Amino acid sequence: MTLGLINANPVVHAKKERVARPLDDPHADDAVDPLEIYDYVRDIRDPEHPYSLEQLSVLSEESITVDEKLGRILITFTPTIQHCSMATVIGLCLREKLKDCFPAHFKVDIKVAPGSHADEEAVNKQLNDKERVAAALENPNLRQLVTECLYSSEL
Amino acid sequence: MTGSSALNFWNAYWSGTLMLFSHWAMNFSIQSVKPKSEDIGVSRDELSRALLLAFAATPLFEPFAIPLLLDKLSSSLPSAKVESFKYLGYCAPMYGSDRMAKHGGALWSSVKDVLYTSPESALSVESESDGGMIFEESDIMVEALILLEGLMQQNSDLLLDMILGDEDINNFICSFLKPWDIHDTPLQLRQQLHSVGRLLAVSAKSSMASCNRVFEKFFPQMMEALGCSVGNHSDESFATEDRALSSRFNYGTLYLCVELLDACRCLVLGFKESTSFPDFIHEKWCCMLHGFCRSLINIFFSNLEAVSGNAQSSFAYTGVKGLQLLATFPRSFAPVSLLLFENILLKLVSAITSNFDKKFSWGLELKALVEIGLYIEGYQESEKAATFARIVVDKFVSWISSDEPAMPLSLKMQAICETGMTGISNMLRIVQGMEKAISAKFTQAYVDGNFESVELVIKVLECYSARVLPWFEMNGGSEEVAWNLAAIIWDKIDNSSSVNLTVQNYELLGAAMTAMKQAVRRCSQESQEKIVNRAFRVLSASTLFPLKDSPFATSLSNSEDSYLNHHVDRVSCRDEWIISLYASVVIALRPQTHVQNLKMVLQLFIMALTKGHIPSAQALGSLVNKLPSKTNERHLSQEYGVEEAIDVILTSSIWNFCQSNTLRKCSLFGGGNEIHNTKCLAGLNHTSVHISAIVGLAWIGKGLIMRGHEGIKDITMTFLGVLLENTNNGDFPESCDPIEGKEQEVIPLMKSAADAFHILLSDSEDCLNRNYHSVIRPLYKQRFYNSVMPLLLSSTRQSNSIITRSMLFRSFAHVISETPLSAMISEANKLIPLLLDSLSTLTEDVMHKDVIYNVILVLSAILMDKNGQVAVLENAQAIINQLIGLAAYPHMMVIRETAIQCLGAMSELPYARIYPSRTKVLQAISKALDDPKRAVRQEAVRCRQAWASIASRSLHF
Predict the structure, then answer these.
(1) What is the mean pLDDT of residues B193-203?
(2) pTM listed for this prediction
(3) Bridge partner list, A45
(4) S-S: B586 plus which of A101, B320, B619, B863, CB 3.0-4.6 Å?
């Protein structure tokens, strides 16, 4: 039996223009900021649709907080629908992407936005449990799905 | 041909044409031709052009073609519309006015549809500041307007009936006759206003008759809406009329009015270019314009005044544009009398004077004045030219030396230069004013260091260098201006006895030197000779030049060194000025120009360069670059050729400190084992003199290397000698304590010798380039590269001191970063190991960071070059190892960034070759992910991804 799409008709938003940062400014504050993190994750493809997380408004710059001194990143994302079973896959993609982009001493917390998911607590728990994340990524099907989302050229 | 056969032929022709057009109708939108039409050998444009010619082949096609084209205008495809308008525009004159007349209604309605009903114009970028009324028309609109112009030329009455009788257009114009605020108007209304303005303009400028009709229909209404009345010509004063202000700020009407003015001005100027020049004065539109002219000018004036109050830039735009148009009507026809013209100029000048803090309107006003000036120059209006010169140019010139108006000096100079550039007579007036200003203020600035005078003279000199002299060169002016400038500066220097040393004074000297170089380089040989002789007289009268009893006058003596040291210390500020300006003159001379007393000049420059006076060194370089080489090329009176000059230069005792070298011996480098004379390095003072000497020698070498002279070998040897002599003789072992004084002295000396290679090969803007008439032998950099590389390599191999090696590598780095890649890439396999060696040596000292960056840029160029691939592959491991080291280079961000970029490029190499390094690279890059600079981090993420993906997506290692 072929399962239907979980959210067959998502609302697609326009991509925001990339803000070019001034180059060669020796006094620029080059600390890790939410925009830098957002630039890495905004183009991750949605597991279901050929749109980026940015286009589906799953993520925004404001939903990311970072504390470079403590080495902590917190990403809060909003699944497109309350019962989205893809929320955990999106979370896995975010975690995998950030692992590639930041040194190991950064602690990454990934959560769904409060009230945006029916199983909010369960999803949050699953996404921040390193054993379960490692186990999930050992599953070849899941690994392939995550890889496709991260490196897809469909966008 | 019998009657029946003719009929048969006609029938066949008719049916064939019908078939043809029905086929074209189906395939008209040339879109059906594939864009990738290379396969059929015909491009879309060619096909479209061929079809256009076929349509227009005979008027007999009219019954088929016009309905087809009109039908295609209703297509939703923009390109089909553009093509249709283009075809209609081309076919209309071919088919003739009679045939086209019956389609008039349909044509007008389609043009109106595109222009008025749904205009597709877009606001232009600069429209922000002018009230949002500058539009860029879409392609369809442009083609529609071209068609309309063509049709108006063909049958203006018919179309005008339609345009002027069109209710929509009439109602629209009437609705705009009421005052309204441009900023509150929706975009579509503004687009329509723009289109209606264009429609009226196209209609009015097609012919006198149509211009009359358009004016009769709309002009009185507009004038009434603006509250204008027919002026009283006897009253020449411009008393403020007591009229409701609101009527003066009726933007829509003003806008249309300006468009109409523009159209009739184009009409008149169009006639002026042709031979027959009709009498316009009795034309209706001209009479009307004449009557309302004064009131209109008044309204435009009040628009300008409004600017100073409320900064309403949209009104400034119409006001300035209106005045500019009225001022540029031909004099012979003149709705605008000379007095009105004067008033317009006065108003614009006063607006410029008071509005300098409003950037937008100030720019508009200046542009309008410049346009008026250009018009006068182009149309040879002598009366207006005199008025313009009196009111505008002379006024602006008077600003140069006065404190009034209180405008920033840079704006003043901008206004002065731009107005001057309208024509040769205006520019000459401006130049006169500038010359006066320099004459008046130069002494004050140069002697007393008076702040205002210094600033003024600097600005005027900059203006000369950047605008005035290039303008004269472009517009074929005489060299007199350049010559005068040089003469004035030398006169002023000659007449003053002392100079006050201030920081501004150095800026002034810089500006004077640039202006002098720019002026002299534009002079002819004869003028240059006069200038250089004049300069020499000043030079010889200075304290620098005790001609009779100086040791210079005799042959080189043992006391020269002490004389130099003594003399150098007491060079006064005035002398520095004189020698700097003299050097500037010499730098800009043509090769043919004869320099008198060359020996003394050479010796003087040598003396100055030991004090670190770079212009003297550059002048020496320029001299040896340009002096004739063979006796028969020489001027009869020329005492010196290049060989003699080199003799004089290189036998000077200032090079004694590097006696080990081969200057004047012309022998090959002996490997650095001679006994060296290092006595001269005894004191720090001497070290700085020797560094200056090396820099000077580098500039001389640059002059020689560019002309391909053999003497460069000796100079190169000298540099190598300095690099090697201080360490290889055992005085300076590897274990030397860096704090020891000797190293403190020797390292700067060696560094300057290494950096001399940079001076030798890099392009300089200050001297020795095509602008300054240098002799440049093709491929001189390649030649030098080929000759110096073996020497550098053997020296590096023989050297056993860390410091010497690093300095040799520094020289090597300068050479490779200045040589074109194409010259080096064929030997990339030999070059790469050296390049890596140099990187590893140079990274040990932070002072080499700039050089490392240049080397890594060469490396990245080799990585990107196809011809370097084999060599890169052979050395892949070594390159990767070196790049890994540089990815963590702490002193310069761009080095880390470029190194990581190069690593990213290395990941493209064949898998088997680079896989062994993968783990190492990924480990190094993960450290770069934590770099303090964002650019490096981002580059690291990309590089990590590239390297991770060569095996699998996994980053586990």
Answers:
(1) 84
(2) 0.76
(3) A52
(4) B619
